[in-house]
Amino acid sequence: MSECIFCKIANRLSGSDAEYHFEDDQISAFDDINPQAPIHILIVPKRHIPTIADIVDSDTELLGRMVRVASELAKSHHLNENGYRLVFNVKDHGGQVVDHIHLHLLGGRQLGKMNNN
Ligand code: AMP
Ligand code: ZN
């Protein structure tokens, strides 16, 4: 079985008590274990794709669905008025730690401007 932690959590194979916000046949969304904002949800495909650098044309619909799930979760968490941030970290320089693509949804506080990191 895969040793990838996000394969396990997204497919509900781990004993982790993650708080799930969404699930369908392709995608799970659950709380980040180390939240950087009042709302910090990870939108994760069930299929293992290591990084955004690995995506191909046939992944386009999946990636679009991930963004759509994020926008719905943002709405249901009342983030539409003040806004929020969606982030993919990619490989070392992008700060990626878990090598299974995941879209961060961050909101509920004023986040730093991009030029402050
Ligand atoms: P990244 O730096 O983009 O790879 O982000 C990885 C994120 O996964 C970090 O924000 C971690 O806090 C989060 N994380 C790591 N392990 C877990 C876990 N078991 N459950 C939920 N979130 C996790
Ligand atoms: Zn994986």
From TrEMBL:
Keywords: Hydrolase. One of its GO terms (molecular function) is hydrolase activity. Residues 5-116 form the HIT domain. Coiled coil: none annotated. A motif (Histidine triad motif) lies at residues 100-104. Pfam families: HIT. The active site is at 102 (tele-amp-histidine intermediate). PANTHER family: HISTIDINE TRIAD HIT PROTEIN. This is Diadenosine tetraphosphate (Ap4A) hydrolase. It comes from Berkelbacteria bacterium GW2011_GWA2_35_9. The lineage of its organism: Bacteria, Candidatus Berkelbacteria.
